[in-house]
Amino acid sequence: MKTFILLLRGINVGGHKKIKMAELKKQLEGLKLKDVQTYIQSGNVVFKSEKNSIVALTGEIENMIKENYSFEAKALVLTKQKFEAIFNKNPYLSQKQNEQEKLYCTLFFQTPEKEKLDLLKLINTDGDEFIEGDNCLYFYYNNGYGKSKINNPVIENKIKVLATTRNWKTMTKLREMAL
């Protein structure tokens, strides 16, 4: 059985697209996923499956949400190995290790075009920094994510690819849960 990390995009944000994690856990178990664990309310899940196809798992999860709720939610499913690689390659971990509350990771649902990623460099970030990773961006939000001019909606608008952002505390917890 392989371990996977599921990141749902845009659920339980501002009272929209509400999904209770206890319900989600049961519904995922109904898809024959094993050892399902959720973390906080923003759609962070670790599970095991005998299925190896990310495409099949993603489709089943998105269809289950569509069938059980009155909305669609995009699912980003990563293998434990892929998640671990993203986690370990964060260049800010060594540079800003005492400021992990300012570290975030934006993960893309598809690979963005290099030219569109370059558009993000034109945004005045007021001290916020980012570095491109493997299908993700690593952020150091100097003044906090909530005050930044470069957040998930801005990123999606510029690069024309769906993305989901997690703070480093969440990334760390998901990594621990997947061990």
Automatic annotation (TrEMBL):
Q: Which Pfam families match?
A: DUF1697 (PF08002)
The record's annotation in Gene3D superfamilies points to: SP0830-like domains
Q: Which top-rank group of organisms is this from?
A: Bacteria
Q: Give the range the annotation lists for the signal sequence.
A: none
- Entry-linked InterPro entries: DUF1697
Q: What is this protein called?
A: DUF1697 domain-containing protein
* Annotated source species: Abyssalbus ytuae
